[in-house]
Design goal:
Length: 107
Amino acid sequence: AEMCFSGHNKAAFGMNVAISREGGLAGLSRAGLLFGESASRMLVTVTPDNLAAVRDLANTHNVPFAELGTIEGDRLRVTVDGETLVDEPVATLESGWRGALAKQAGM
């Protein structure tokens, strides 16, 4: 979700993400799929005209590659094996994220 948030001279944007439990993700729970930060996994965004080049580069170096979704709209939508787990406005998610520390600190 943080990737969608505003900052660093960019506006917030929505994403549609579809995750499959195929391959190395088969044993992960929903929480693991959504929040796991295990070693050697990265999420990158590329423009559609650069997608094939990034895929080819990954394949050349035997790096697993999966296209997970698209950037569009103003909502974050995440599905896992076809089941919608997240479908919220990015502004709502960002507001909660930005205020979480202050709220926990009683500020």
